[in-house]
Amino acid sequence: MERQEAGTTQPRPPTVAEARARDKARKQAEQAQRAAAEAEEAKRRTRKRVMMGGIAVVGVAALVGGGYLAYRAVTAPDQVTASCVQVDENGNEVVVADEYCGDGKTNFRSDTSHGGGGSLILLGWPQYRYHYGGTPTIGKPPTGGSSVKPRNAEIKTKSGTTIQRGGLGSKSTGGSGS
């Protein structure tokens, strides 16, 4: 057996089989590296497609939700607050507590009664009715608003009593059964 001395001994040239094995190992390493790079690229593309699909779903959902909210905002009934007012013989109005107004209350004149001035005389004084909208202060005349009941509006008193439900189909009318 020969001894090798460091720095002076020359390595022997590789045999043909060793050279082929080295080349084969290098090619396999390159193929494995290419396959890993292709797998990473495919994974990135898939992730990107999934992300784009998710964004598209969220976008469509936002569009549908926004359309629904816009539709509800356009078709939603107005909300109006009704205040009970006392009307004297001269037609002057003064805001009073809600307890004086309502069906079945003494001297309450509903907007659905179409009796006109004649019915006021028959009911006696003072008269009570609702005033819609505006700024009500008890003991003072209402500021703003109207004594005409708004159509297609949700009307509630300050105490929370619903006078009229707003929107389509909210008005119920009596009919005769055939």
Summarize the structure in words.
The protein has about 180 residues and is an alpha+beta fold. It has two domains: about 60 residues; about 90 residues, no CATH class. The chain is built from two helices and five strands, in the order αββαβββ. Strands 1, 2, 3, 4 and 5 form a five-stranded mixed β-sheet that branches. A hairpin with a 4-residue loop joins strand 4 and strand 5. The protein is rod-shaped and about 135 Å long.
List keywords for this structure.
single chain, 178 residues, alpha+beta, five-stranded mixed beta sheet, 38% helix, rod-shaped, disordered C terminus
- Count the strands? 5
The SSE string, one letter per element, is HEEHEEE
> DSSP helix count?
2
* Main β-sheet description: 5 strands, mixed
Question: Could you tell me the strand content as a percent range?
Answer: 15-25%
Quote the distance from N terminus to C terminus: 124 Å
Mean pLDDT level: 81
**Shape field:** rod-shaped
List the topology elements.
Blueprint: H1 16-75, E1 78-87, E2 93-95, H2 117-123, E3 127-132, E4 153-157, E5 162-164
Parallel strand pairs: 1-4
Antiparallel strand pairs: 1-2, 1-3, 4-5
